[in-house]
Amino acid sequence: MSQPVLDVSDVDKNFGGLRALSNINLQIKQGTTHAIIGPNGAGKSTLLNVCIGRLPPDRGAVIFNSDVITGRQPHEINQMGVVRVFQTPAIFPDLSVKQNVMLPAFAKRDGAFRLNMMQAVADQRQLESEAEHWLEDVGLLSHQHQLVGSLSRGDKRRLELAMGLIQKPRLLLLDEPTAGMSRHDTNTTIELLKKIKLRGMTEVIIEHDMHVVFSLADRISVLAQGQIIAEGTPEEIRGNPKVQEAYLGGTQV
Ligand SMILES: Nc1ncnc2c1ncn2[C@@H]1O[C@H](COP(=O)(O)OP(=O)(O)OP(=O)(O)O)[C@@H](O)[C@H]1O
């Protein structure tokens, strides 16, 4: 098997006496969409936070493209190409749609002020055109001058996706991309994520909506009480009795 893009190896995470993650092993292959599902409190967000450096694991390692990223700061991991979108407080409602898309690219580019004015203007123009490209990609170009505060929930999610894509990720972590969306917006988002995937993007998606999961995932890992209780193709997971049991009383898979 080729080297996985992301390799989570023997990870434990405790909060006091609570074992939120227990011996997690997970490999994400290049160009695939891998869904992580599980009932409330299963440990999905904790796992994502360990992967992006927001939480240190108590044991084990996370390896991204052969580099051990455990112990690195979130911004370093982000610079390496791991981009998390959705459920982030990164939108500025008083700025325009285009200005919001430019922000993460500014931060990523060098994080420093440029003293050369001509260069600064050239950089600004280039970023604007990049922002327009990604806004067109997510279907928001016609809203580029609008203030973000006035966007619908679905459009805000599309904006967040453009803010992720402008960072040119090598791995996209999608945290409940359709939470709270109408069915129409959900379906539009599914189509958009399919389009991005067709370009070879590697995606990890945490999602409660099984319609979204089964529309997008190549592989699914099921977490329950901090452990991976099943992993496989959507067909394998759909028929797995352990998974049905974990969801009993909740969403049916
Ligand atoms: N910072 C924290 N301090 C203490 N306990 C925490 C902390 N973060 C999460 N937990 C606990 O760890 C367990 C896993 O939580 P986590 O948020 O990872 O689950 P989840 O699968 O993402 O749930 P949901 O689907 O409801 O978002 C839960 O019991 C939760 O209460």
Automatic annotation (TrEMBL):
Residues 6-250 form the ABC transporter domain. One of its GO terms (molecular function) is ATP binding. SMART domains: AAA (SM00382). The keyword Coiled coil does not apply. This is ABC transporter ATP-binding protein. It holds the Pfam family ABC_tran. The keyword Nucleotide-binding applies. InterPro entries: AAA+_ATPase, ABC_AA/LPS_Transport, ABC_transporter-like_ATP-bd, BCA_ABC_TP_C, P-loop_NTPase. PROSITE patterns: ABC_TRANSPORTER_2. Keywords: ATP-binding, Nucleotide-binding, Transport.
